[in-house]
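Hi, here's the filled form for the chain we discussed.

Project: internal
Contact: R.S.
Residues: 214
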Amino acid sequence: MTEKREYRMEELARLAGIPVRTLRFYRERKLIAPPRREGRIAWYDDHHLARLRTIAALLERGHTLSSIAELAEAFEHGRNVGELLGMDTPTEEEPVRLTPEELAARFEGEVTPENFAAALELGYLGTDGDEIVHISRRLLDVSSALVREGIPLAEVLDAGKRVREHTDALAELFAEVILRHAPAEDLQRLRPLARSVVEAELSLAMDRRMRKRD
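And the returned structure, exactly as it came back:
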C-alpha cells in the first residue's frame, strides 16, 4: 500500500508551482478542501495537490475561477463510481477513468458547469476520489467526435437523454420477448442479438432518412 503523503502549506505551494498567497486564496474560495489540522499546523495531502494541478490546467484552458468553483461543487456532489456502475451488474461497456483536465482536453471549451452537471445527471459521469469515471468508452469517444465536428456538447447530451428514453423501451421489449420463452439467465447470453437488431434497424432508418433528402 502506498503511504499517504502530507505537506505543509509552503511545500504544497512549491509542488503545485503557485505562491503561498494563491494557495490561501484558493482555500478561502473553497476551491480546495480544508486541510487536516494538528494543533496550529495545517497538513495537506495528494488530493489537494491533484486539485491544484487541475485548477492550473483548467485556467490554462480558459476557465475562470468562478466556473472552476462551480465545476468543483458539481464534482463533489456527483454520484460515486459505485452508484454509477452498479454492483455486479453485467455490462458490455468499458468504463474510462479521467482526470478533470483530461476531460477538459477531450471536450475543448465545452466542459462548462452546466454540461458537467447534465452529464452527471444523465449518468454518463461519476466520481472516484480525484478522478472522473465515464460509464462507456464508446459513448465517450462518440461524444467527443461529435463535438470535434462542431456539434455543441449541450446538444449531444440532450440527444443522449432522448436516445436513452427510446433504448430503455427497446430493452424492455426485448426482455419481455425473451423472458416469455427463456429463463432470466439467458438475457445476458442473448443481448448481442438484441443489439444487432437495433443496429440494423437504425442503419435502415438512416437510409430512409437520407433518401428523403434526395
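Let me know if anything looks off before we file it.
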